[in-house]
Structure formats: C-alpha cells, structure tokens
Amino acid sequence: MPTVRTNDIETYYERRGDGPAIVFVHGSIVDSGMWDDQVAALRDEFTTVVYDVRGHGRTGGSSRDRYDMALYASDLHELVTALDLDRPVICGHSMGGLVAQAYAIEYPDEVCGLLLANTFTPTILTRSEWFLRRVAMNAFPPLVRVVGIERLERFNVWVAERFSKGVSGDYERVEMLREDGTTITTAEFGKVIRSMARAHEHPFDLSAIGVPTLILYGENEKGLVRDHARLLSDTLVDCAVDVVPGGGHASNLDNPAFFSAAVRQFANRAVGRNGETATGEDAETTTK
C-alpha cells in the first residue's frame, strides 16, 4: 500500500499516468475512490494523484484531537513535496475545495491552477448558513454516536432533496464508494465535521489566489453552493464558472464525462498548453 509521511501520519495515495500533475482532493466522509472516473479519463495525458485525506479511508485517523484546514493543507503540501510534483493543478470537491483554497493561499508558488467543485468558502452569507455551520454541523457528531453515520447521512440526503430536488444526484454511487472503502470511525467523523464547521477560523485571503481557477457545480446543486460560486467568481482574479448538466452535489460522479472533459481542458490551459478558457459544452460560463 503506497504511503508517504505527511506530518504525523502515513497518507495513502495512488499515482497514475504521465505528464503535468493533477492532485485530486476528495470531499468529506468518502475517500479517493470518488475520483476513479477522472483518473481513468485523464491518466493518458496527465500524472493523476489521488489520496485519502487525514481521517478518511486507508490513511485513517490520528491522535490529534482537532483538525482544521491549515492542517489539511499542510498534509497536502507534504504529499506534493514527497512525490516531487512540479506546481500541480489542485482539484478539490466540497471539503476538498476548502483544502485546495487553503493550499493555494498558503503555498502560492506551488500550484499552477485550482479546480473547485461543488464547494464553498468560509464566508457566511446568510442566517440559514450561520445556523448550518454553527449549530447543525456541531450537532452531527453527538447524533452519530446514537444513530450511526449511515442513518444520519441518509436523513441529511432526504432533507436536502426536500429543498433542492436532484442535489443528491446518483447517491447510490456514493453509497457504493462507502461500502467499498474503509469506514470512517465515529471519532474521526467528529473531527472532520468540526473542521468544516470551524472553517471560518482559517484566514482565507482569497485575494492571495492568483492562479487560474475553474469552479464547477452541478445543475441541481443547492442554492448555498451556487451563492458561494458567485462569491468566488466575483473575488478571484482569473476565474471561470461551469455548470455540470444533470449533476448534483457529487457532480463528478453524476456526469463524469462532462466533468473529466472540463478538467482536461482547464488543466491544459493552466499548465500553458493552450490559451483557451476552460469551459464545457452546454455549460453556463462566466469569465473575468
């Protein structure tokens, strides 16, 4: 099992293909297997690196009692350094998008492009988001001890579908990923969820991100993520926004062909192999 030392843990990773590097950072409570379609599609032209973020999958947990975005970004930096990757494109989904932003801010000379999928920033835009971050998410860990991760997640999906039809997308694929992967422990679940609830504590100076950025979100994504996509687009200096047709929150799983094509085109632009804007067919695009 390939691992590298990142701070105080052994981080599991998989490296495939050859060419400019793309590092994929998965979302919370899944693992690197969520990127299988993208690795299969892109390894012909790029070096693809996926890894299990601290607390997840085959990396597993640690003795630390608290995680935060700075720690995740430091782990990613240690991984990139150990694998001798030269200014990779960083592609992050949901929580992984927060990690990607933190990495680009902390290590601006060690990234050539950001792809932020179905993600958000630490900025709190509305009262409902304040409630979600400060109250609901902090209540998840105690609930998990009572009902279990799977039941809580299914309830969360049920609630999300009531407000944003289609946001869960092909949720059966997400469940299959969790069945095939290593189950996250209750203790690690608590640390991961609290790190997201406290994301606003990390000093995210978005003006420090100067590399080309592509934001992707699913056509059926919830309004909160759409709002954050607009905020990112309005703030970042070189940013495009694409909508993944038919996609929900896990848009790379819901429409892998579209998503992978958008990654390929954007990565080629970011590494300087063409000057085209990274967009996808039939997507809504905003560039500045």
Q: Spans with pLDDT under 50 lasting ≥5 residues?
A: 275-288
Would you report the number of β strands?
Answer: 9
Straight-line distance between termini: 43 Å
SSE sequence, one letter per element: EEEHEHEHEHHHHEHEHHE
**Radius of gyration, rounded?**
17 Å
Overall shape: it is globular
Strand order of the largest sheet: 1-2-4-3-5-6-7-8-9
Query: What CATH architecture label applies?
Result: 3-Layer(aba) Sandwich
CATH class: Alpha Beta
Give the helix/strand class: alpha/beta
* CATH level-four homologous superfamily name: Alpha/Beta hydrolase fold, catalytic domain
| Main sheet overview | 9 strands, mixed
- Name the helicity range: 40-55%
**Average pLDDT metric:** 85
Domains (count): 1
- Strand percentage lies at 15-25%
The name of the CATH topology is Rossmann fold
Number of helices: 10
